[in-house]
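Entry, Tuesday afternoon. Goal for today is a structural model of the target with ISC bound, before we commit to ordering more compound. Inputs were pasted exactly as handed over by J.K., no edits. I checked the ligand SMILES twice against the vendor sheet because last time a stereocentre got dropped in transcription.
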Amino acid sequence: MDIAFTDNACNTNHSGSPLYDRDHFVTTFQQATECAAQLGRQILVSITFPMAVYDPQLLFTIFHHLNLGDRFFWSRSADERALVGVGQATTIVTTGPERVATAAAAWRELRQHAIIEKVSADLPAYTSGPVLLGGFTFDTLTTHTSLWEGFPDGLLILPYLLFHSDEDKAALTINALIGADDAFEQRADNVVGTLRQLALALQASQPATAVSEDEARQASELAVHDLLPGEQWKKQVARAVEKIRAGAFEKVVLARGVQVAQEEDFDVDGTLQRLSQSYPGAYVFAIQRGKRYFVGATPERLVCSEDGQIQTMALAGSAPRGATAEEDQRFGEELLKSEKNQGEHNFVVTTIHDALSTLCSRVWVADAPRLLKLKNIQHLETPIMGNLKPGHSILEAIEDLHPTPAVGGYPRIPALASIREDEHLDRGWYAGPIGWIGTGGNGEFAVALRSGLVEGHQATLFAGCGIVADSDPESEYQESCLKLQVMLRGLGGEM
Ligand SMILES: C=C(O[C@H]1C=CC=C(C(=O)O)[C@@H]1O)C(=O)O
């Protein structure tokens, strides 16, 4: 069994016994206390070992019962990748417009002198080692309300336990921050105790059963009301169109929110299951902050970075799905030909291309957009790739890319000013970057769309639409309703 350490002064290479062996944890934690004493700082210890592939939703539910703290869920069932975390070894909290850059610096600092053990070569390639999970607000310069309490401008969590899987490989990572005076034997005992509880819970677990559409249909009635009456939102859209025609900017994305309530508390675990089933190509996510969960199923990748290669996409321009195959095809063809939607889409392609040109040595943009067909809506999508210049991580890419004109507007500065002035909505983490970052600059962040903030029996859901010179307020309103349906159905509402 190979154990790989980071190359720093405190570490030595050695072969070790299986990690479920208490002595192994004692030895590693003791080594960390010595390192901490020598360097006068806490040392990050991260130990990853293989485990069987489980349904990530099962782990999410079991983590709730282990009472280890807040949970995080991230999965895209189409590519069989998932990350499920619980508790926190440490967190990075940042504020203000520099929130991403400050988080990147803190992450670099935390990684220094880390003891990183990988107890097998047969582990998920990109998620083994310490992985931070979290996200960022859409905009730091809007008024923040109490709605988003617990969701700061920037938050990256190093979970205590992380289950991660990639196709046929899965692993568990245990993270700890160890100081010179830490009782390392006690810390090792705690880890072993937690692992025993997890093993017992997995043994006793029943595989999650799929929620049938019939069951979902029987779900309780949801009371839904607009944060801003529909007619007023349409007037906002009309005003944005006037501004665009007057030359203030070329595109702006206006969002709206709805409040949803039912008698019982919403079942976040069930919501994730429904979202994963209905949107296998979407990033299904949940981040818990105390009693609140920010949950969603977004089709939009902001950036994925693997071994210096980054992948992103322009996603903008929408049409409904058809009721029949013929109608669906017609809607798709109309979307591909629509000048209004092409224009809305091209702002995103150009902006992403320009942002990547400074970060990457080479950038590839697909020749023409294709259709991305989701359950109830279809979009124009252009895949974009690039080779990151050395020394850049995914966080630098986020800093340059966010907000793309798919969620902000074009040009960026006047469009954002207009959102701040006219939208009257605290977007919080909606439309912000959400995802994970691992070692070596690898990671993946999505744009947190088709999402909502759930607390007890209430939820606030968000959706936005790209407004251009020939936008029609009524059509944009209908489009926003289609986007809201994702979370309404996810919460168990109308089918
Ligand atoms: C802003 C949202 O969607 C964006 C992504 C795809 C299509 C969009 C559009 O056609 O307007 C939006 O740019 C949202 O879902 O809230």
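Residues 253, 300, 315-318, 379, 406-407, 449-450, 463-466, 483 surround ISC (CB under 6 Å).
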